[in-house]
Amino acid sequence: MFDEKAQLHTLEGVAAAVIILLVIIYAIDATSMTPLTASTASVHVETELRALGQDILNTLDYAEPGHTSKLKNDILAWNGSVYTWSGSNYTVRIGTDNLNNNLTEIFRDTLVEQGIAHSVELTFIDNSTLIPYTVNMIYNGDPSNNAVVVSRKFILQNIGPIDGEDRPEGDSIDTHNPIKDIDPSTNLYNIVDIRLILWRM
Fold it and tell me: What is the 3-state secondary structure (H, E, C) of 124-145?
């Protein structure tokens, strides 16, 4: 004699086990999509770094009409040396010279305080080859795979708001500034692209 209730209980048990198994599989899949995973967290960090870098460039690039921005002044006053963060100052890699300008001041207050690694590259047109040339202004090592880059372009002119000219400071005396006039017969002096590279250590 067969017990029909036993078969029914067996089927209920199998159905319950299948449902529990499906719930566990769904829960595991759902967990991998939460913001706690490495890929989603890194995207969030990159977004924050990009916003911070853009805010820094926007702040330094602001200028009243008829004046030159702090960011442009820093580029014009640069002597062509490569600097690195030493733990207390932005020091030239060879020698004892320190870089103290608007860029380094805001970097100390924001990036250094938060432990964010950063480098600054300048790309401009080489006056002898007329092709873009990239040099480091601040170099703090090779960026990670999750590094972000924000940039700003400047057009330097021979006639500008600073004493009637936009040329790099001391251009006729200081030969170390690599930004040179690409065409002395025109008002265009050069085009500079400043790139701020940010990454978490």
Answer: EECCCCCCEEEEEEECCCCCCC
